[in-house]
Amino acid sequence: MTRRTLLALGALSLSALAISALPALAQTIVVGGKNFTEQQIMAEMTSQFLKSKGVTVDKRAGLGTAALRSALEAGQVDLYWEYTGTSLITFNKVTEKLDADSTYAKVKELDGAKGLVWLNPSKANNTFGIAMRKADGDKLKLSSISDLAAKVKAGTTLKFASNAEFYARPDGLKPMEQTYGFEFGRENTVRMDSGLVYQALRDSQVDVGVVFATDGRVPAFNFVVLKDDKGYFPTYAMTPVIRKETLDKNPSIGEALNAISAKLDDATMAKLNASVDVDKKSIEEVAAGFLKGQGLV
Q1: Core vs surface per residue 43-62: b (16+ CB within 10 A) or e
Q2: Angle 147-156-161 (CA atoms, 0-180°, nearest 5)?
């Protein structure tokens, strides 16, 4: 088989997957990301994938949620991966309880009016979770947040670890306490970096902590996530969001992002996150390994 034939077959294969080399772009595409492991992985993965298709990329990871969203709306960032529940509640102030499909449709509509396009959602639902060490959950006979609330109201003192964002979010700690009718109390609530929450909970410095559902440290550290039996937390489907102006000029980028989205679910993200946070692999290595393993590069 000639080299020319091999190249032709390779091109046809990529085309079938809708991830063929993208046309040359006049501008640099700015890829954003938030300041926790999953987001850093996604920003790196997206950057590597677009670069492999000939796109010039400027990656800006490590931003807070509000700052990143503002940068997207202002045109300082072209795209990043956002969560449907975050846009619904934090950015669009919708308090109505919606199922997963309705949440996606609503944020697609509302953000579309702001010049932002929600592409295909992944099956990764990185909702918040309230976690305990499994041994403590078993000892206290806690399986749900309602069980936790009842225990606290009955006088049990439990120290809660929260990252600063969850502490202040409109879909965070205070509204959750109101929904379940209890309070940890300011003296029993400790704010810290997201990553430190897992360490503090593992090392028995706190009794309860807020975690991300797709974080690989939850099973690795033998935590149990209490059931959200009142359905407080909305769906947080991780989805690529891109400025309409950017997508209109570069429609093939949408195809590339959708190709990644189709490969992601809860188990996949938990494994990727654990590779960084538990196995101590570099974000660059984990992102590259996923793209290669999935046949995207």
Answers
A1: bbbbbbbbebbebebebbbe
A2: 80
What distance in Å separates the CA atoms of residue 274 and residue 216, rounded to the nearest whole number?
Answer: 4
Rounded Cα–Cα distance for residues 45 and 63 (Å): 17
Q: What is the pLDDT of residues 209-231, one digit of tens each?
A: 999 989 999 999 999 999 999 99
Return the structure tokens found at 82: 């956002």
Count of structural domains, the chain: 2
On whether both 155 and 212 belong to a single domain, the answer is: yes
Q: What is the pTM assigned to this prediction?
A: 0.81
Q: What is the pLDDT of residues 16-69, one digit of tens each?
A: 344 445 554 557 999 999 999 999 999 999 999 999 999 999 999 999 999 999
Do residues 181 and 118 share a domain? no
Q: Within a 13 Å sphere around the CA of 226, how many CA atoms are in the beta-carbon half?
A: 27
CATH code for the domain in which residue 266 is found: 3.40.190.10
